[in-house]
Amino acid sequence: MNFRRLGKTNFNISEISIGTWQVGGKWGSGFDDALAEKIINEAIDSGINFIDTADVYEAGLSEAAVGRVVRARSEEIFVATKCGRQINPHINENYTPEICGG
After folding, report:
1. How much is the pLDDT for 75?
2. DSSP-assigned letters across all residues of 67-90
3. How do the pLDDT tens digits run along the chain, 102 residues long?
4. 95 carries an active-site annotation
5. How far apart are CA 45 and CA 74, in angstroms?
6. Which of 44, 57, 61, 77 is flagged as catalytic?
7. Which residue in 65, 52, 45 sits closest to 1, CA to CA?
8. Quick one: which of 66, 96, 90, 94 has its CA closest to 78?
9. Helix (H) or strand (E) segment spanning residue 34
10. Residue 11 belongs to what domain range?
11. Which of 1, 20, 32, 100 is deepest in the core (most CB within 10 A)?
12. Which of 39, 43, 17, 16 is nearest to 26 (CA)?
């Protein structure tokens, strides 16, 4: 696996990441926690240390699966998540650390 430094940080991020939009099943099939965790673990076993997720991926189930796997692993894993799609009303003032988990 090739790694690159992320910007001006000292984070060495894998050039390949895993996106978790449909990690727990195919569109419309429901979410399979075991499958999601298997896929994420296999990605990490392959050297990937950068995971992309969001609070709206399968209504938060994908983000929860990422959290379970990352907590269970000893490697340093970097997670990029997006928040806000569920904020109602969807206005700038509502993007706060409390709402977005910061």
Report:
1. 95
2. HHHHHH--S--EEEEE--TT-SS-
3. 999 999 999 999 999 999 998 787 766 678 899 999 999 999 999 999 999 998 888 878 888 999 999 999 999 999 998 877 777 777 788 777 777 665
4. no
5. 11
6. 57
7. 45
8. 66
9. helix 33-45
10. 3-100
11. 20
12. 39
| Residue 101 pLDDT | 63
Tell me the β-bridge partners of 80. Answer: 52
DSSP 8-state code for residue 46: T
d(CA 3, CA 16): 8
Single-letter code of the amino acid located at 47: G
pTM surpassing 0.85? no
What are 47's two structure tokens?
């050297």
Domains identified in the chain, total number: 1
d(CA 1, CA 71): 22
